[in-house]
Structure formats: structure tokens, C-alpha cells
Amino acid sequence: MGEQVDQSVFWDERAEAWDENADDLETFAARFSDPAIDLLDPQPGQHVADVGCGPGVTTVELARRVAPDGTATGVDVAPGMVEAATARARRAGLDNLEFVLGDPGTGPIGSFDAIFSRFGVMFFEDPATAFANLARSIRPGGRFVAVVWGELGANPWMFLPNLLAAGPLQAELTPPGPGEPGPFSLADHAATASLLESSGFRDVAVTPHDGVWTADAATVDDAISRLLSVGPMGGAWRSADDTARASAVDAVRAGLEDHRGGDGWRVPATALIISASVSG
Question: d(Cα 80, Cα 169) in Å, to the nearest integer?
Fold first, then answer.
């Protein structure tokens, strides 16, 4: 069983790394969120929320889609993420969005026409309560779309780098136990659909969406460093010296060799796009 993690602290510690690397990470993450936002189909004038918004990249996109009269509200449990996202919105020159500290596990987060989440809802401590609060936060007839990771075995882009880097970074890697918050907590299609239905959603659909994590020979070390700095190895990465970091990157690069072709690496990734609605 995995060690209990305070999600607010965990993500706050990684907020700076996420913000610094957001644009580079977006090239990969957008392969999953772009079709999900298209499915949500936010319309001008709507009021939408982005749960687990991180540094605010997806919230900015939602704000652009609902402009000029609609609004987007980014919600995150980590103060550092809210701070980074607020600065990002300022740089984007948008005034129809805001970012707030919030936790669906403690109650409804507002009243919205639609709610979106990219890789945020897998970390709820009490998923049944949190999803019920999200359902209550959506106006009658509104929509919910979220992107979560598929099963561990379908995502070597994630588990291999962390597994391979744990030794060089002298880090203990303890995966979450069944039912515990973590990147694969919603990977079971049927269980996730049942969870949302029992939480007040209807018309629930869970659809796999395949992608790849890519890196070319010239930038692969930087790409690996980004992965390690923002994920489970983030704490060990921050405290490691340059020698340990270089050894970790070397170990990951060597361990991903089977996924190398030509002048780059292509490592499989699978997400699930969850869509649902609330009764009108």
C-alpha cells in the first residue's frame, strides 16, 4: 500500500517545476486534452471550471473559447499552482478568468455550465464525495469531461522513467495501493463509469485515447529531466546533486532504448477521456 500523501503539499512542491516546464510539457499533454476540450465544446458566454488546473494552460484555452462574455475558473489545491496560473493569465492578457484554491472533496466548487479536468481528478482522497460535489457544481443539463491516465502497463512513458531513476536519485518509489489517489486510480473503465453514475452523473462514457511521448536525440536529456522534475521523483530530483541527476538521466535514456527508432524516442501512452452530463 502506498504512503498517504497530502495532495496540496505534494503539488505545491512541484508548482515551480510545472510552471517552468509547462510550455514544453504541453506539446505532449495537448495530444490528450485537445480532443477532450473539443468534446466538451465550450461555447461563448458559458461559465466553465477547470479542476486541478495546475499552471493554468488549459484554463487559458477554455477562457479563449468562452470569450467574450463567458468565464473560466481554474481550481487547484496547491497555492503555488494558483499563483503560477494567475501569472500565466496575466501574461496572456485575458480578463475573463480567475484562479482559486479549492478542493471538490470538501464541497461544491461553484455553479458552472461545464467542468473540465486534465489529469487532476485521479488524486481525490475520497472520489465518491468529490465527484458528487462536482456533479452538484454543474448546472442542470451541463457537461463534464475529464482526461485521466489509462492502466499502468499502457503507460511506459511514465512508469519506466520513475522506476529507472529511483536508484540513482536514492529515492523510494512506492506506488499507490488499489483505490488510493494516484495517476492510475481511474484506469478501470467500468469502475470509473460506475463511480460517476453513483455520484450523480448520467450518460457516462469512458473512451481510450492513445498517444506517444516523443523526444529527439538532441533534446532527450532535457525531456527526461522535465519528466523527473514534475512527477513522483520531483522531491528527490530537487535534492539531488548534478552527478546524481546526470546518472538518473543516463539510466532512463538507456532503459528507454527499446523505444528508440531513427533519431528519436517514441514511448507509448494511453489516457481515458471521460464524458458525462447532469440531468436537465
Answer: 25
